[in-house]
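Re: the 155-residue chain
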Amino acid sequence: MKLARKMMIALVVLSVMAVMAFPAFAQSGTRTKTITEETINTSYRVSNPYRSRVSNLSVDLQEGQVVISSTHNFRNASYDTVTTITPTVSNGRVTWSVLSATSNGEPVSADLLAQINASITSSWRNFIKNQAGTGRVTSVVITDTDISYTLESRR
């Protein structure tokens, strides 16, 4: 009988604690995470590209957009690329879209632009997810020096 009574008291205490915790979980907060251009350019992914054929990789933040420059080295040729991307926020997620891309100063084809779009979208999503943490993104502001994400999160 004593064991049953102790179990019942423990169950009641746990239930009361759980009920008191719900309002704490329901509270939401807004926070801003700022990532500087320097942080991006010194990150391992940029300073040490995944593919050994990529060199001179750099990210230049400009008002409302990001410009990514790199050199792609192959056995018979080398290509200097410049890609301009912009973010949009929809349903709490950021989607990056390629505005333009050039290879050795010439615009790339629409087909190649679509492939670049797919590749950059997933890469940036993963980088930002690791930098900013969890939450619903409500806005993204890009200046000449940084990217600021405003997130709404549950605490």
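Residues 1-8, 10-27 have pLDDT under 50 and may be disordered.
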